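Sat 14:20. Reprocessing the chain from the morning session after the first attempt stalled halfway. Input below, unchanged.
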Amino acid sequence: MKLYFSPGACSLAPHIALLEAGLAFETEKVDLKAKVTASGADFTAINKKGYVPALTLDNGQLLTEGAALLQYIADQSPQSGLAPAAGTFARYQLQEWLTFIGSEIHKPMGSMFNPAQSADWKAAVSATLTKRLDYVTAQLADNDYLLGNQFTVADAYLFTVLNWANVVGFSLAPWPAVQAFSARVAARPKVVEALKAEGLV
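Finished this time. Tokens:
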């Protein structure tokens, strides 16, 4: 398998998942502005959407969209515990979290990278993120991770998006449980490995 990534982007989540799952894979960095891979290939010829993550499977098929990649990776290594078994209620809870993170945290946090964002727009986004992180805090009150005490791909995704907070100037100080979660995930050996591989530490 080959993961196309950009350092610190949402592709970090499947990068972490691949390492946690113990799967064999390679990576190729993508310049998202130029749409060119590290080897000089036209990235839009690989993924017509033009953004990461993208995962080329061993049979040549391509998967895109983080939630799909994360579940695919977890299902290749059931023993890793990265996702509950397909068809179980816990699996639907995982999908619920992946959807929530993608639409309610990833999108608003990601919008703050836009230099054209007005002060009013930024304030509205901050208000939305405040409500969403209050919800996450309630989940983490008695749990190390989103689904309890087992690290899953949802945690890799949430960690990745929360890492953008400092970059966009959104303080996580009001949510000590969220900060503790991020620190807990950041200390995992495979997470450290992914961060180092992407030049983030």
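The chain has a mean pLDDT of 97.
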